[in-house]
């Protein structure tokens, strides 16, 4: 009995001291955390954080269908249908100098299935009032309707500018590369211009003063524009003077324009307009001695939110050239 007890106790002690061998346990890898898109409300509606960054991004654009009407506007035809798609990316982030902004605008135009064009409509960076890149100048601004002709032939330039803003007032200066504007005989690309813009609001009144000097053409232009709320609409007045045809203004030596945007209903806006040109430009290196006048009507209708229709007709009667009637009908969906 004693021997048996000793053997049993020895076997139990040996078993207890022997490690148990078994297959390693299978441990499932934990899923990587997914960062969902977060809304960024620091710069207004429509922005969201790019995942993994503190940069806010906004995507917007529009789709436009338009039928243009005018003499030979479609080659041998007096009408032509065109379609456009445009998308804009705006990125913003905070820095020690204020918001750093980057904008890219891509535009796609189609006259038909084979005649199409893709172009960079804008691309620029902006921080602390400084802007550099491809963007529209102050000369691109105009009155409410489609009648006024008080801007440059080409308003999109590679430029560097500084603009100061404070409340309802702004003032700025830009240096523009004028490669595709107006050229006198013997002039060509790589032209340079300097422009300024200032404006603001005071209650129901808004104003803007714009000027520019074209160094190659050695001429400049200046424009004043203002709007005021009167009755059921907004009255807009503008005047422009040019010392000679140049890339900032070349339509006439001087011109005055007026438009009245009538808010007929919450969805309907009707804008009649008129413009008079003194020494209207026809051809050559200088203005002609003849004048011209223009009258038109533009109608905007908001069908639903982000979807509207526009129709416009314009009549131009130059003293030293043939008169013309042009217009278009447009449908546009914004997002």
Main features:
single chain; 335 residues; mainly beta; 16-stranded antiparallel β-barrel; 1 helix; 17 strands; 5% helix; globular
Describe the fold and architecture.
The protein is mainly β. 5% of the residues lie in helices and 57% in strands. The chain contains one helix and 17 strands. It has one helix spanning 2-17; strands spanning 48-49, 56-69, 79-95, 98-110, 116-127, 130-136, 156-166, 169-178, 191-202, 205-214, 219-230, 233-242, 252-263, 268-280, 292-304, 307-318, 324-334. It has a 16-stranded antiparallel barrel with strand order 2-3-4-5-6-7-8-9-10-11-12-13-14-15-16-17. A hairpin with a 5-residue loop joins β16 and β17. The longest helix has 16 residues, at 2-17. The radius of gyration is 32 Å and the shape is globular.
| Percentage of β-strand residues | over 45%
Poorly predicted tracts of residues = none
The residue fraction in helices comes out at under 10%
Could you say which structural class the secondary elements and strand pairing correspond to? mainly beta
Question: Globular, elongated, flat, extended or rod-shaped: what is the shape?
Answer: globular
Strand order of the largest sheet: 2-3-4-5-6-7-8-9-10-11-12-13-14-15-16-17
The N- and C-terminal alpha carbons lie at a distance of 96 Å
Query: What is the alpha-carbon Rg in Å?
Result: 32 Å
Number of strands: 17
Q: What is the average of the pLDDT values?
A: 91
